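Please check our next protein.
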Amino acid sequence: MDFGHILTAMVTPFNDKGLIDVEKTKQLLDYLIENGSDAIVVAGTTGESPTLTHKEKIDLFQLCVEYVNKRVPVIAGTGSNNTQATIDLTIEATNIGVDGIMLVVPYYNKPSQEGMYQHFKCVAESTELPIMLYNVPGRTSSALKASTTIALSKIANIVAIKEASGDLEQMAEIISATDFDFYLYTGDDANTLPSLAIGAHGVVSVASHIIGEEMQAMVASYKKGNNAEAARLHRSLLPIMQAMFLAPNPTCVKFALNSKGVEVGGVRLPLVPLTKELENVVRSVI
């Protein structure tokens, strides 16, 4: 399945009591769809998934599926370091009607490559939905090797990977050794254009909350062969991409959205709000 080029890893809006805000979530979904998001990833890292309860994830998937109403694909982040819990949540998300599943590499356990392969294989067998793997060794401490990703790509419904290692050589190896209909997405906004240049399909983005249309213009320029314009746009967008990660994600992007009048509330502990100094930096960049 082609999820598009700019996939937004959506923040989870909270109200003043720290609970999921249904109306703000609906407003955010409309805003993202209208401003360059080809698909929405729900309950990923940027959605503060470690702080969401099982019920909150189910309720959030249900809300997004019903409200988006097939305008764009909704991809549910159901991965964890517990294989059976991941299977259970994936089955529930499938029954709700999400369009795809994103599975993070198991964290903390430090599984072997064979353990990772068996984990993803078992989860894939629990659903017919298309699955995107998510390799982010900076958060999980365990890296999915290119050879393991290539082996997993042979499983029919494992159709993509969000490669957030920042390793362009590994990305090139995966692209070269997988079928044409297996899509690689970078998980790093600042690597969007370099990744496209080696054959990536797009980006699972944080900055697209703020510059979704501009990122779409950059991708369109590259796809049309106007490399100079794509490079110019990439350079002009880099400061905003970098500013979104001056503090632990999604603290900066939530502040930026609130500053733009797209109210999403604050972050949950153990994350904390930006300092006044960082607020000034982010505000000046955007």
Observations:
- The chain has a mean pLDDT of 98.
- The two ends are 33 Å apart (CA to CA).
- The first helix runs from residue 22 to 34.
- The longest strand covers residues 158-163.
